[in-house]
Design a protein that fits this description.
Elements: H1 6-9, H2 27-30, E1 39-42, H3 50-64, H4 77-87, H5 90-95, E2 107-114, E3 135-142, E4 147-154, E5 159-167, E6 169-170, H6 175-187, H7 189-194, E7 205-206, E8 211-214, H8 218-221, E9 226-227, E10 230-233, E11 236-243, E12 248-256, H9 262-266, H10 278-286, E13 290-294, E14 297-303, E15 309-316, E16 319-334, E17 340-344, E18 357-358, E19 363-369, E20 372-383, E21 393-402, E22 407-416, E23 422-432, E24 437-443, E25 453-457, E26 461-463, E27 476-482, E28 485-493, E29 508-513, E30 526-527, E31 554-559, E32 562-563, E33 574-580, E34 583-589, E35 591-593, E36 596-600, H11 602-607
Antiparallel strand pairs: 1-12, 2-3, 3-4, 4-5, 6-30, 7-10, 8-17, 9-11, 10-11, 11-12, 13-14, 14-15, 15-16, 16-17, 16-23, 18-20, 19-20, 20-21, 21-22, 22-35, 23-31, 23-32, 24-25, 24-27, 26-29, 27-28, 28-36, 29-31, 33-34
Length: 614
């Protein structure tokens, strides 16, 4: 068993359950399974604290004024105007349910931000007129149905251009709810007990606005909006899991974070200012696209607010290939038994919902094989400001492009995170350009629904993790045809340990129709639960019932799974602070995953004609 400081030992006792919550196992049972499990305490029922009472009073005052939503305060003139237009729009009033007591569902404005260039990548978007007008996006959260409502407002015409409702997607929370979560955690008896009776200060809290889930509680079963203010004490990371829907503390959970001593404590400081030049990054890479032309490739790239580094308009030797590729989310799950973790967004350092921000500007470097330049890599590093200290994260997002037409989008974690039992799942969204694309899946055996070889995928579906590959390593083929003529084709080769910094992708794959607005072409909030260990990672909600045909366009979602390891000599998804020449430096052990797209000769693509639909 891991060593816990004595002042935390009293918190191991399981407290009375929160009404409606049922743990998957008691801490006594969990203790029998080994040293890498979490300890948890579920909170008992307790009266509302001062911060919750003040917040409830704020809600009641808003309802008394006849307002349909709790508005944000201290906004700029343009943002306040956009918020007023959205809240007064008839469509919103039609969409908000009202109870028998006449009180509407609890609705709160979470953010008001101007639209970015990345919001216009979808040619079918009703918001493309905003390229030449001042527009703002107003995001609201409906706590009654756990859905996000998003309006785009044109300030020049004073009209709402579009509304969309996003179920099952968790938005970023504003400062008001962040402060509320921190105050609830600070004042809870469970946190005080776990910290040995010492009340934490607000500056000691990490990850306070990062979404979380605890399987077996309302956070997971009812998809409530929950966050996890985190306290680090010695070698222990302590989470206070706060349900912002019910305004209750769900529980307290803790584990070893894998680092101990003065080195890890000192590395929790903010990086040097010259390495985190937010103003330059915002101006050059968040406000506009940057064009890149190299070795036959042509593309645009920019940092999004929450979907990482996006590439768009990708062409090779003049032929359109990709509409866009981006990294929607990172799901970080600690301990499969307990089902707890974080959902991390990566993106611009300011005016965004990103939890992990750019460490420096995007980098372009040559890919060298046998001393020769064979391609180039476009890469963005994202870091929490205290990395590699406890409960801080670093991610790499890369795009590799080769002279022979190969390309590979990938995502890497460099830890160090909050625990020694973490699984990282990046959500990559890949949209081919134009129509006429067809996806085929490889089958090594004959079944009632497939022949040996590649079989057509004609409708939306998801694919189980770590599927079979052919002799060339391909799990899928992707080809584009027009009037019966194959224009181009690719083998999709997942990681099976052949790539650098990879032990295999263990990927879930999803094929969805690309026609629907709001299914990821523009920027997405947090998608799905952080902590599901099966195919329910978020993209499955875009698979309609009945499943849509992929004939008019498709999107490929690629969700690999990477498990960290701290064993000496086998570190993976991890980082340590080490002292070198009198200076602290991070020792990095990245884990990277992503599919390689390998071009097929047109004749080969045509000969790979599928036989049956699975």
């Amino acid at each position: 068993m891991p060593h816990f400081p004595s002042k935390l030992a009293v918190a191991v006792t399981l407290l009375a359950l929160l009404i409606g919550c049922k743990p998957e196992a008691s801490t006594h049972d969990a203790a029998q399974t080994g040293s890498n499990v979490f300890k948890q305490t579920l909170a008992g029922a307790s009266p509302d604290g001062k911060s919750v009472l003040a917040y409830r009073a704020l809600l009641q005052a808003s309802q008394a004024r006849g307002e349909f939503a709790l508005a944000l305060e201290n906004l700029s003139v343009s943002a306040a105007k956009a918020q007023a237009i959205a809240l007064g729009h008839e469509v919103l009033r039609q969409r908000v349910p009202v109870g028998a007591d006449g009180i509407p569902a609890r609705l709160e404005v979470l953010s008001v931000d101007r639209l970015r260039e990345s919001d216009f990548s979808d040619p079918n978007s009703p918001n493309r007129s905003c390229k030449n007008s001042e527009c703002q996006r107003v995001d609201l959260y409906d706590f009654s149905s756990s859905r996000m409502l998003s309006a785009v407002v044109n300030l020049q015409t004073e009209t709402v251009l579009s509304w969309r409702a996003l179920a099952g997607q968790q938005p970023e929370i504003p400062e008001r709810l962040t402060r509320l979560a921190i105050e609830m955690a600070q004042s809870s008896p469970e946190v005080l007990e776990a910290l040995g009776g010492s009340a934490p200060e607000s500056f000691e809290v990490l990850m306070a606005n990062t979404k979380t889930s605890l399987n077996g509680t309302r956070c997971e079963r009812s998809q409530h909006l929950c966050v996890a203010p985190t306290f680090v004490q010695g070698n222990i990371a302590i989470w206070a899991i706060v349900d912002l829907t019910d305004l209750k503390l769900v529980g307290v959970q803790w584990t070893e974070h894998g680092q101990i001593g003065a080195l890890s404590d000192s590395m929790a400081a903010v990086p040097s200012e010259q390495s985190l030049s937010d103003a330059v990054i915002m101006e050059r890479y968040c406000e506009r696209n940057t064009e890149l032309a190299k070795l036959g490739w042509r593309l645009d790239y920019m940092l999004t607010a929450s979907d990482g580094l996006q590439i768009s308009g990708v062409q090779f030797n003049g032929r359109p290939l990709l509409t866009s590729v981006k990294l929607v989310d990172w799901h970080v799950n600690y301990s499969e038994r307990e089902g707890f973790g974080y959902a991390d967004a990566v993106g611009c350092p300011s005016f965004s919902s990103a939890a992990v921000i750019p460490f420096q500007a995007p980098q372009i470097a040559d890919l060298i094989e046998a001393g020769l330049v064979v391609g180039f890599r476009l890469q963005q590093e994202f870091r929490s400001v205290g990395w590699p200290g406890p409960c801080n994260y670093s991610y790499l997002q890369s795009y590799d492009f080769y002279q022979d037409g190969r390309f590979r989008p990938s995502a890497a974690s460099i830890g160090a995170g909050c625990g020694n039992d973490g699984t990282y799942r990046p959500l990559l969204r890949i949209e081919p350009a134009g129509a006429g694309w067809a996806l085929q899946e490889y089958s090594p055996i004959k079944t009632p629904s497939s022949d040996i070889g590649f079989n057509a995928v004609s409708h939306e579906r998801w694919f189980a993790a770590n599927g079979a590959v052919d002799a060339a390593g391909a799990r899928f083929t992707l080809e584009q045809s027009q009037a019966g003529q194959v224009l181009q084709g690719f083998q999709i080769v997942p990681g099976r340990g052949q790539f650098e910094n990879s032990r295999g992708d263990f990927e879930y794959v999803y094929a969805t129709a690309s026609a629907a607005v709001g299914e990821g072409a523009d920027e997405l909030p947090t998608l799905g639960s952080c902590c599901n260990t099966d195919y329910r990672q978020g993209p499955e909600q875009f698979i309609n019932q009945p499943a849509e045909s992929l004939a008019k366009g498709l999107v490929i979602w690629y969700v690999p799974q990477m498990k960290n390891e701290l064993t000496a000599g086998r570190e993976y998804c991890w980082a340590y602070p080490v002292l070198e020449n009198g200076v602290l430096k991070p020792k990095r052990y990245p884990c990277e995953a992503g599919p390689m797209f390998v071009p097929m000769p047109v004749q080969l693509a045509a000969s790979a004609a599928p036989s049956k639909m699975p």
